[in-house]
Each structure stands twice: as structure tokens, then as C-alpha cells.
Amino acid sequence: MNINPDWITGFVDGEGCFHVGVNPHNEMSVGFQVLPEFTVVQHKRDIQLLYGLKEYFKCGVVRSNHGDRMAYRVRGIEHLLQIIIPFFVNHPLKSKKRIAFEKFKTILMMISRKEHLKASGVEEIKSIAKQINIIQ
Amino acid sequence: MNINPDWITGFVDGEGCFHVGVNPHNEMSVGFQVLPEFTVVQHKRDIQLLYGLKEYFKCGVVRSNHGDRMAYRVRGIEHLLQIIIPFFVNHPLKSKKRIAFEKFKTILMMISRKEHLKASGVEEIKSIAKQINIIQ
Questions:
Q1: Chain A contact for B115 (CB, 8 A cutoff)
Q2: Residue A76 is part of a domain; what is its CATH number?
Q3: A60 touches chain B (CB under 8 A)
Q4: Angle A65-A80-B91 from CA coordinates, rounded to 5°
Q5: ipTM at complex level
Q6: How many domains would you assign to chain B?
Q7: Exposed, middle or buried, A117 (CB in 10 Å: 0-12/13-18/19+)?
Q8: A-B interface: how many C-beta pairs under 8 angstroms?
Q9: pLDDT tens across A47-94, in order?
């Protein structure tokens, strides 16, 4: 596939999603696990586009989503920090999804500083994550 | 807006739609009116993207769609034939929407040869238009 950065930005402006889950988790000392993910969902007829993204970014997985839909998904913190975030810093989204991305990036930076392991950090992340969901 | 062809192709792969309506119409001698249109629908918060498309293509209109959604829409036969179709010939879509575009293009070529004004042409256009709807 002849996939290129500007095409990816346009496609993600349409179909991409930045999400941060903050889920109750007994084994975490703060009681919550922070799960950021970047996803692109498509009907299964266009699964080759999702594999194209996986090949381009050299990270993430392609999995079934709901019904006839498939998703390209990146959850690894290092992959998000070292590949996905720099990509969208260098090739900015043009839709309001850019604001969601900026908040997503803020949370990833907090995670890289281990702030998600402190109660105050989790509270701040919860608040930012809520704002992300409102935008998208 | 710094909009470029590859971004447009990616965005339309996600959000674009090629549609051909074949509607009963008393004033047409063949009894039907053929209405092709290219649309991109977005939440109103991203209306600037739709105006960006309008500015880039120098044709079409931005109108409200359903509820909070807005649409960029090109219906003019000459604009479709001279601007939209050449654009996607030169910057091919990567999703299965490309197949819908090819069928859309076939219908526009038939219209340019005035085949939509003959009963046999309308029947063929109806059949192709149905296939377009199945893909998208």
C-alpha cells in the first residue's frame, strides 16, 4: 500500500480515536489502572487499510471490534510515546480531534513521569480523559 | 487551512460519499431525474474542514445536514465532471470507496453522453447506482 503521512492524517481526522480509560483495578496501589489507546475502526471490507497503518507505524494490532467492524489499536505506552505521538506532532490533525490528541499527549507525558501511580495524578488524568471523550 | 490532496484523499476515504439518486420526475420525458452528488458530512464543530474543501475545489456548497451535522456537497454535473472526478482519478482513494467512485464516474460519463435522457440509460444508471449504495 502506498500510504503516506498526509493521507494518514486525513484518514485519522475522519476515523481515528484517542481514548484513555481509567478503570478500577485492585492490584494497583492507587486503585486505578490508566489505559490509553489510539484506535482506527473500519468495516472489515477495508481491513487492508488497518494493516497498512500497522505496517507504517510498525506497532499495534488489528483486531475485530463490533460486528462487521475491525480496529487498528495501539496500547503500548512506549509505542504511543515514541511513534504515535511524534507522528501527530509532525503531521497535525486538522479537525477538532487535534484537541483530543493534545489532551491525550498530556496524559501520556504524565504517565511517562509516573504520575498515574499517584492518587493526585489519577484524579487529574480522570478529569482530562473526560474532556477527551466530550470532544470525540 | 493548509489542505493538500493526500489529506483530502485520506479524509474522503473515511468520511466521503458518492451517491446517485434516480428519482421519479414528471417533467422529464423518461420519467426520472438522475441526481449525482459527492458529499462529506461532519459534526458542525468541524465546519471549517468543509469550507476548506469548498475552497480547495472551488465548487460545491456547505449546508446543514441532520441535527448537529453539516455537509459539503457538490451536485453540479460540470463541477463533478471537471473537478471532482479528475481529482480522485489523480489521487486514488485507498479504501473500497474507490469502487463506489469508479461506478459514480461511469454514471457521470453516461450523463455527459446524455444517456440519462433515454429509458435504457436510466435503467442502467439505476442498476449501477444500487451497486454504489451497497459498497458504501
A1: no
A2: 3.10.28.10
A3: no
A4: 70
A5: 0.92
A6: 1
A7: middle
A8: 66
A9: 999 999 999 999 999 999 988 999 999 999 999 999 999 999 999 999
